[in-house]
Amino acid sequence: MFENEERTNIETLGEFGLIDHLTKLIEIKQKSTIKGVGDDAAVLDFGGKKTLVSTDILLEGIHFDLAYTPLKHLGYKAVQVNLSDIYAMNGTATQVTVAIGLSSKFPLEAVEELYEGIYLACDKYNVDLVGGDTSSSKQGLVISVTALGYAEEKDIVYRNGAEEGDLIAVSGDLGGAYTGLQLLEREKLVYLENPNIQPDLEGKDYIIERQLKPEARKDIIQLFKDSGVKPTSMIDVSDGLASEVLHLCSQSNKGCNLYEEKIPIDPMTYETARQFNLDPTVCALSGGEDYELLFTIKQTDYEKLKNLLDISFIGYITEPSAGRNLVTKTGTVHELKAQGWNAFKQ
Ligand code: ADP
Ligand code: MG
Question: Considering every ligand atom, which ligand is closest to the CA of 78?
Answer without folding.
Answer: 1
